[in-house]
C-alpha cells in the first residue's frame, strides 16, 4: 500500500470506522532514521494505528521500534510480504521469507526495544518455496526464536521475479485453506487473513477459522464499506443502507476543519481528496463527483470550495 495509506488516507478512513486497526504504508528504516521528513508523524485521531516497517537490520529495526513507541503507535508490524523489485533491492519484504533466522532476530531485537506489540505480515511462500512445510518452518522459527505471536498472512505466495507487484496480488492463486490449517496447527498464535476479500460478510465468515481479517485495496477503492465495519465486527448499530450516501456526505463535511488546517500549512488539496474519489460507488452523480475532484483538486491554490462543489453532484433523493 505504498503511497496509498498515507496519513491523509488514514484520517479519512478513521471517520468511516472508529474501531478498525489502521496500518501505515510501509516505511523503511532508512527513511525513518535518515530521511529529511518526519515519516512517523500521524494525527492522534488515527488511533488505533499500526506502523508497518520495511527493513532487515535488527539494529535499525530496534531503533525504529523504540521511536514508534515514543510516538505512541499501537502496533509495530514488520513487512515480510511485499514482492516489489524496489523492496527486494533493499533486501527486505517477501525475500526475507528465505531467511527465517534473520527475521526472528529482527523481531527479537524489536521486542527488546519496545513494549508495543510486534507483528509480522507475510505470504504463504515465495517462488518455488511454497510448501506448507516451508511456511510452518518460517512461522515456527519466527515464533520460537523471535517471540512473535501475531502473524498476518496474505493467502498467496509471491513470485520475486517475473511478476509485477500488481500481478503478485492477482496471479498466484489464493489458498485460504492453508491459512486455516496454519491456525489449526498453531492455535495459540494470532492469525489474521489477508488477500482477495472484497465482501464484508465473506470477510466476517473468516472469523470461523482465523482470528481476524485485513482488508487492503478493496477498502481503499470502495471506502464506503468501512461504514459497515463497526456494526458487523464490533457490535455497534448498523448503518441504514438507504442513508449510506447521506452519511458519506456528512462524513466528508466533518473533515472540513482538518482539511482547512492542512491547507493552511501549505499542503495540497489533491493530496487529501485523492483518497476519497471512490467513496460514492453506486450513488447518482458519483461519476461527476469523481471527475470534478480529479480535474480540480490538484490545481494550484485549490481550496475547500472544490470539495463543496463536488459534493453537489451527489444526489441523495
TrEMBL record:
Residue stretches making up the DUS-like FMN-binding domain: 1-312
Keyword terms, alphabetized: Flavoprotein, FMN, NADP, Nucleotide-binding, Oxidoreductase, RNA-binding, tRNA processing, tRNA-binding
Residue sites binding FMN per the record: 52, 121, 154, 194-196, 216-217
SUPFAM superfamilies: FMN-linked oxidoreductases
UniProt cross-references to PROSITE patterns, sorted A to Z: UPF0034 (PS01136)
InterPro entries (UniProt xref): Aldolase_TIM, DUS-like_FMN-bd, DUS_fam, DusA, tRNA_hU_synthase_CS
UniProt-listed Enzyme Commission number(s): 1.3.1.91
Catalytic residues (UniProt): 82 (proton donor)
Cofactor(s) for this UniProt protein: FMN
Residues at the site labelled Interacts with tRNA: 79, 166, 169, 290
Lineage top rank: taxon: Bacteria
Nucleotide-binding found in the keyword field: yes
Reactions catalysed: 5,6-dihydrouridine(20) in tRNA + NAD(+) = uridine(20) in tRNA + NADH + H(+); 5,6-dihydrouridine(20a) in tRNA + NADP(+) = uridine(20a) in tRNA + NADPH + H(+); 5,6-dihydrouridine(20a) in tRNA + NAD(+) = uridine(20a) in tRNA + NADH + H(+); 5,6-dihydrouridine(20) in tRNA + NADP(+) = uridine(20) in tRNA + NADPH + H(+)
GO MF, any single term: tRNA binding
Gene3D superfamilies associated with the record: 1.20.120.1460, Aldolase class I (3.20.20.70)
Role according to the record: Catalyzes the synthesis of 5,6-dihydrouridine (D), a modified base found in the D-loop of most tRNAs, via the reduction of the C5-C6 double bond in target uridines. Specifically modifies U20 and U20a in tRNAs.
Family: Belongs to the dus family. Belongs to the Dus family. DusA subfamily.
HAMAP family noted in UniProt: DusA_subfam
Protein name: tRNA-dihydrouridine(20/20a) synthase
Species: Thorsellia anophelis DSM 18579
Amino acid at each position: 500500500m505504498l503511497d496509498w495509506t498515507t496519513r491523509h488516507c488514514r484520517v479519512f478512513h478513521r471517520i468511516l470506522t472508529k474501531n478498525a486497526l489502521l496500518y501505515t504504508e510501509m516505511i523503511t528504516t532508512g527513511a525513518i532514521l535518515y530521511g529529511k521528513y518526519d515519516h512517523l508523524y500521524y494525527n492522534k485521531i488515527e488511533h488505533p494505528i499500526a506502523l508497518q516497517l520495511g527493513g532487515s537490520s535488527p539494529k535499525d529495526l530496534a531503533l525504529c521500534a523504540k521511536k514508534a513507541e515514543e510516538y505512541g503507535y499501537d502496533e509495530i508490524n514488520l513487512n515480510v510480504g511485499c514482492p516489489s523489485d524496489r523492496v527486494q533491492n533493499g533486501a527486505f519484504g517477501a525475500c526475507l521469507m528465505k531467511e527465517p533466522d534473520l527475521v526472528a532476530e529482527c523481531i527479537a531485537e524489536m521486542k527488546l526495544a519496545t513494549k508495543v506489540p510486534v507483528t509480522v505480515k507475510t505470504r504463504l511462500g515465495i517462488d518455488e518455496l511454497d510448501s506448507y512445510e516451508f511456511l510452518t518452518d518460517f512461522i515456527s522459527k519466527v515464533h520460537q526464536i523471535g517471540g512473535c505471536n501475531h502473524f498476518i498472512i496474505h493467502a498467496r505466495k509471491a513470485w520475486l521475479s517475473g511478476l509485477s507487484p500488481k500481478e503478485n496480488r492477482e496471479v498466484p492463486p489464493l489458498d485460504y485453506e492453508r491459512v486455516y490449517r496454519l491456525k489449526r496447527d498453531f492455535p495459540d498464535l494470532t492469525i489474521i487473513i489477508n488477500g482477495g476479500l472484497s465482501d464484508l460478510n465473506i470477510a466476517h465468515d473468516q472469523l470461523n477459522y482465523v482470528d481476524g481479517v485485513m482488508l487492503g485495496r478493496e477498502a481503499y477503492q470502495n471506502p464506503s464499506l468501512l461504514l459497515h465495519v463497526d456494526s458487523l465486527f464490533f457490535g455497534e448499530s448498523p448503518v441504514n443502507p438507504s442513508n449510506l450516501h447521506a452519511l458519506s456526505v456528512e462524513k466528508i463535511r466533518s473533515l472540513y476543519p482538518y482539511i482547512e488546517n492542512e491547507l493552511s500549512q501549505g499542503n495540497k488539496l489533491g493530496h487529501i481528496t485523492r483518497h476519497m474519489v471512490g467513496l460514492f460507488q453506486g450513488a447518482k452523480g458519483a461519476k461527476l463527483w469523481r471527475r470534478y475532484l480529479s480535474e480540480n483538486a490538484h490545481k494550484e491554490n485549490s481550496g475547500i470550495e472544490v470539495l463543496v462543489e463536488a459534493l453537489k453532484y451527489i444526489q441523495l433523493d
